[in-house]
């Protein structure tokens, strides 16, 4: 089956024919728990066949009631090829006219409302199954049954399919053929099991393709169909049940948690834990000897964790604590990066001073949930529906321990960012045209430290490197609406020197007349970003003029810089 880059979950276990293909009796409490746990496996609405909702109403009343509650909350979708309740019921009555004992729900009052989230598909599933049978050569039966039985099936099934254009294609369509033409019990049994699985597989694939989805794996006794899943760990019921049951959070609160604006943050933490468990389960016997398996490890690290209160904030803290403990014990949990989990873009915001960091956190906390991380790298994380955002702090300068080049190089390995925005304070180069607090946006970054010095003059040799075109465009869009200060776009001078000299500033302006300001870190930014083919830009604000320096205006500059950056990030999230 072709892999699908999607998180949608199709509830294949509600298919009665599929369950009967492997003689599975699904209890209502288990089905309800699977549906409830599945809400934490995806950000997109799960979906089911509308006919399965009807056909499960008698056997799984608690589950179908819960599904209708999810429908009211716009959390689930139902797929059908009909456009109204009346049309749907009439089509089922025609289809199952000769099988009313098995499908009584279509001939008596069952579900009185159509539903809020019913999606109409093109084409009939029965017609698609009929086409599958007519194209099938039944090679999956060749080695399982006698030659004579195989010849009967290969010759008679297409004739039976063509001869009956009205009946639903279920195993019961072949009852008469099997009873009258196949006398060998072993062959009859193998044919029935194989045809059941063929029908169920094709039926499931039809809905997987329609919803670009995957299935829930590790459902007890239903693992025979797990091969249809995109990733067996991403949607493992066994793993998610273990993880979610650790918190003792009541199932009655799941819908409330799912609808909370902070749910995406919880989703990604759980996804990292689940994938880490899956990767551990594929590891050597050493892991099994220590913890039995990945589930054993998670149970071990949760032993001394305080159970969360009935709110999503405590739930986030609880699972984040478990994830960090797991990372300290097993490095494989560090390998599950945000990009591994969800394929979203990643933005890195870089600051240098405590004042800059304080205002960065203030701005982002006003808009998003910000979480502090202290594993192998101190940082802050913000998870949104369309982007992962991380805030890190480097030390001043380019090349010292913890300075911009070293810090950003380490960040490249950990976060694998697509974009980097460096913010904070800078010196201005044109006091006649600029004001304290004005925002500086780099169009190019010039490393002024690289130069040739002879007896008579200094010759600059540092490159002027252009920043990301995309980030420039988004920053320009922010600048159009910006009224808090002036905005200046141009060349930024950057080097290791802590500048506090008017003569030095004049020398820089003589060497490069287009500079609008400067700092000590952005040359490191552009070096690392270009080397890793990552989009980057510097957005800082003026706190002084590179001479007669004081700390008086650093807070204003940090505030304006971070305010401009948060407005830019909000525009990026809209794209």
Explain this structure.
With 575 residues, the chain is of the alpha/beta class. It folds into three domains: 1-235, no CATH class; 237-341; 344-574, Rossmann fold (3-Layer(aba) Sandwich), CATH 3.40.50.1580. The protein contains 23 helices and 17 strands. The chain has helices at 16-21, 28-38, 50-55, 61-72, 85-95, 125-135, 139-142, 147-163, 175-181, 185-211, 237-246, 254-259, 263-281, 285-291, 294-301, 312-329, 338-342, 354-367, 404-415, 469-481, 502-511, 522-531, 554-574; strands spanning 8-10, 47-49, 77-80, 118-120, 213-215, 345-351, 371-374, 378-383, 387-393, 419-428, 439-447, 451-453, 458-460, 464-466, 487-494, 515-519, 535-544. The strands form four sheets. The chain has a five-stranded mixed barrel, surrounded by four helices. β3 (77-80), α5 and β4 (118-120) form a beta-alpha-beta unit. The protein is elongated.
Question: What tags apply to this protein structure?
Answer:
disordered N terminus; elongated; 575 residues; alpha/beta; 23 helices; five-stranded mixed beta barrel; Rossmann fold
Number of strands: 17
Category from helices, strands and their pairing: alpha/beta
Q: Let me know the largest β-sheet.
A: 5 strands, mixed, barrel
Basic shape: elongated
Radius of gyration: 31 Å
């Amino acid at each position: 089956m072709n892999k699908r880059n999607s998180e949608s979950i199709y509830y294949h276990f509600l298919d009665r024919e599929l369950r009967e293909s492997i003689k599975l009796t699904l209890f209502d409490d288990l089905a309800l728990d699977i549906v409830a746990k599945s809400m934490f496996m995806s950000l997109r609405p799960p979906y089911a066949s509308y006919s399965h909702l009807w056909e499960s109403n008698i056997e799984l009343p608690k589950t179908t009631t819960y599904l209708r509650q999810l429908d009211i909350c716009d959390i689930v979708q139902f797929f059908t090829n009909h456009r109204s309740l009346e049309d749907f019921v009439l089509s089922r009555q025609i289809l199952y006219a000769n099988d009313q004992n098995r499908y009584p729900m279509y001939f008596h009052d069952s579900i009185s409302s159509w539903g809020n989230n019913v999606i109409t598909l093109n084409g009939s599933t029965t017609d698609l199954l009929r086409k599958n049978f007519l194209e099938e050569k039944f090679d999956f039966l060749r080695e399982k049954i006698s030659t004579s039985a195989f010849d009967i099936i290969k010759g008679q099934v297409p004739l039976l399919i063509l001869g009956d254009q009205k009946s639903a294609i279920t195993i019961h369509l072949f009852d008469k053929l099997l009873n009258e033409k196949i006398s060998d019990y072993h062959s009859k049994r193998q044919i029935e099991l194989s045809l059941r699985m063929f029908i169920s597989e094709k039926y499931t694939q039809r809905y997987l393709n329609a919803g670009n989805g995957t299935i829930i794996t590790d459902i007890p006794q239903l693992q025979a169909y797990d091969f249809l899943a995109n990733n067996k760990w991403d949607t493992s019921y066994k793993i998610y049940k273990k993880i979610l049951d650790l918190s003792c959070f009541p199932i009655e609160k799941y819908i409330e948690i799912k609808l909370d604006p902070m749910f995406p943050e919880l989703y990604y933490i759980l996804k990292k834990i689940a994938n880490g468990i899956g990767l551990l389960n594929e590891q050597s016997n050493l892991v099994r000897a220590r913890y039995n398996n990945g589930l054993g490890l998670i149970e071990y690290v949760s032993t001394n964790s305080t159970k969360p209160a009935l709110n999503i904030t405590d739930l986030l803290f609880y699972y984040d604590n478990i994830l960090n403990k797991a990372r300290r014990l097993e490095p494989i949990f560090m390998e599950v990066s945000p990009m591994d989990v969800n394929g979203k873009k990643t933005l890195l915001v870089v600051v240098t001073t405590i004042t800059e960091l304080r205002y960065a956190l203030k701005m982002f906390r006003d808009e998003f949930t910000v979480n502090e991380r202290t594993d192998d790298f101190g940082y802050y994380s913000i998870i949104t529906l369309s982007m992962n955002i991380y805030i890190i702090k480097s030390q001043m300068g380019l090349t010292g321990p913890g300075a911009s080049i070293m810090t950003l190089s380490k960040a490249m390995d950990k976060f694998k960012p697509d974009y980097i925005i460096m913010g904070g304070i800078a010196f201005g180069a044109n006091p006649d045209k600029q004001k304290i607090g004005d925002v500086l946006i780099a169009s190019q970054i010039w490393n002024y430290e690289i130069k040739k010095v002879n007896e008579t003059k200094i010759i600059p040799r540092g490159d002027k490197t252009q920043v990301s075109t995309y980030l420039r465009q988004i920053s320009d869009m922010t600048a159009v609406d910006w009224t808090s200060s002036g905005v200046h776009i141009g060349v930024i001078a950057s080097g290791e020197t802590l500048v506090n000299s008017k003569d030095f500033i004049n020398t820089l302006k003589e060497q490069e007349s287009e500079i609008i300001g400067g700092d000590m870190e952005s040359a490191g930014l552009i070096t690392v970003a270009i080397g890793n083919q990552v989009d980057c830009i510097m957005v800082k604000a003026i706190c002084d003029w590179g001479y007669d320096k004081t700390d008086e205006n650093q807070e204003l500059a940090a505030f304006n810089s971070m305010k401009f950056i948060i407005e830019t990030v909000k525009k990026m999230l809209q794209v």
